[in-house]
């Protein structure tokens, strides 16, 4: 098999060399051609040279620059030149090329490439709303062809980046999920499927849809078993969930005497902090989803080892002695310590079911979420603005290029 692959590669290389010679012969005599045809010869030669390897980048760049001058209306040339600049790290020139492309004519490739490029530039240029602009460009590309799976996939990536870099609004993660779902429905075997599954898993992990996240990452591993990032992150998430389940089941390894003291303490806190505008509840009284007009008091038993900076996950107990995992989306982990008292206004309840990958047993537990720091009190004090945590995402981990 290896010998056959090597032979095929050599045959392809030989064919590319022959095509290059033919195009170079055309180039020698192309003064007889009009500007558009000369531009096409330069574009084709650049394509063939690029296929032969990175050593030809500068020559390709020269050919494409010439082609653009000969025929400025060719979007394909602008896009290819932008791609070459991007590969060389010249992001400003790449940006200008993609803008040049879409200024000639709205085209999917130019719009999508510029959208992706802006997300990369946003990493070093915060505050310019570049990701919001990238979302708009991705939408424009989609409007040109609503049946294009790649455009839906890249729109999902744009919304994912928008959440982490600019808005921190969970609705953008929901939009990302919808775009990924549409992309997969249109082309279940797309080349970007592995990356779609990984990115969608990132969203689901953040939204604490843990089983859906694991399912997607396991599918991605089946596509690419050698992808180390997938293997490591999947294992880390499993360990996090199993650890959380065990802490909740054992009530943070507290003795019965310690638990009784904590329950009495919380019952006393409830009595001393009654609010006529809010109904005090305990875990068993909460309904699935948001609980407006409600308040609940917890004591921290343990801070669960984090898989990301946001949300912070802690094992808590209420005045009934019931435990849950509490997820805090705006509060940094160093602001929370064991035995702190946490007050949550308008708590959001989720019930989680996870299938253990080895024993196949079902692990069930409850998660109480606080997605807004204004609804959190630590030891009866409001969270100071200086302590607000924001989610982070490195674009290198966001498989964005196609």
Give an account of the 3D structure.
The protein has 402 residues and is of the alpha+beta class. The two termini are 28 Å apart. The longest helix has 27 residues. Helix content is 54%, strand content 13%. Strand 9 and strand 10 form a beta hairpin. The chain contains 13 helices and 10 strands.
Features:
elongated, 13% strand, 402 residues, single chain, alpha+beta, 10-stranded mixed β-sheet, 54% helix
Write the layout of secondary structure elements.
Blueprint: H1 2-28, H2 35-51, H3 57-70, H4 75-87, H5 91-104, H6 108-121, H7 130-144, H8 149-167, H9 170-186, H10 193-206, H11 210-223, H12 228-249, H13 256-272, E1 279-280, E2 289-290, E3 294-303, E4 312-317, E5 323-328, E6 341-345, E7 348-355, E8 362-370, E9 376-378, E10 381-382
Parallel strand pairs: 1-3, 5-8
Antiparallel strand pairs: 2-7, 3-4, 3-6, 4-5, 6-9, 7-8, 9-10
Helix pairs in contact: 1-2, 2-3, 3-4, 4-5, 4-6, 5-6, 6-7, 6-8, 7-8, 8-9, 9-10, 10-11, 11-12
Helix proportion range: 40-55%
Query: Cα-atom Rg, whole angstroms?
Result: 27 Å
Please describe the biggest sheet, giving its number of strands, its sense, and whether it closes into a barrel. 10 strands, mixed
How many E strands? Answer: 10
* Low-pLDDT segments: none
- Subunit organisation of the chains: single chain
Kindly report the average pLDDT value: 88
* Residue fraction in strands: 5-15%
Query: First CA to last CA: what distance?
Result: 28 Å
Shape: elongated
Our count of helices gives 13
Order of helices and strands: HHHHHHHHHHHHHEEEEEEEEEE
Structural class: alpha+beta
